[in-house]
Write a structure and sequence with these properties.
about 160 residues, single chain, about 25% helix, metal-binding, alpha+beta, 3 helices, elongated
Length: about 160
């Protein structure tokens, strides 16, 4: 009986390693596909205006609540306000109770969907003290040139 060279121990081990890597690659692809719907990206109002975001895609938008922009609806818990990064202003509509620390001129992050030019928020997060701003908001303001480290944050009252 002749021995076949492609059935050597080395070739079987190589085939097993390649098969294992292929299996691992498929598993990673399936996990990433499953989590794709639950991943929420952060945008500044300028970034959001420049991108084509579908109405079914959940995103976070952050910036400063514009002074004098908060209006409340008649009894249904609707609140409308404007968020700005200094360059672009985005109208936001939210139905619910705002965080206690929500104020005009303060940093805010809203999560929801963009619908017809208005951001329909289902969650609103406000900064929790005078020296803190969500990192995403601070980065967006720095990128737009509206805040520098060492200087007071816009709307912090300092």
């Amino acid at each position: 009986m002749s021995r076949r060279p492609y059935r050597s121990r080395k070739n079987r081990r190589l085939a097993l390693v390649i098969g294992g890597l292929a299996f691992l690659g498929i598993a990673v692809a399936l996990v990433l596909t499953a989590f794709q719907d639950s991943v929420v990206f952060f945008f500044s109002p300028t970034d959001l205006a420049a991108k084509e975001i579908g109405p079914d895609r959940r995103v976070r938008v952050g910036g400063l609540v514009e002074e004098g922009s908060v209006t409340r609806g008649p009894g249904d818990g609707e609140i409308r306000f404007l968020v700005t990064d200094g360059n672009t202003t985005l109208p936001i509509r939210y139905v619910g109770v705002l965080p206690d620390l929500f104020r005009e001129g303060q940093g805010v992050v809203a999560q929801g969907r963009l619908a017809g030019g208005t951001f329909e928020a289902d969650e609103v997060l406000a900064k929790h003290d005078e020296n803190y701003m969500p990192p995403e908001v601070a980065d967006a303001l720095k990128k737009q040139g509206h805040w520098e480290p060492g200087k007071p944050m816009p709307g912090s009252g300092s």
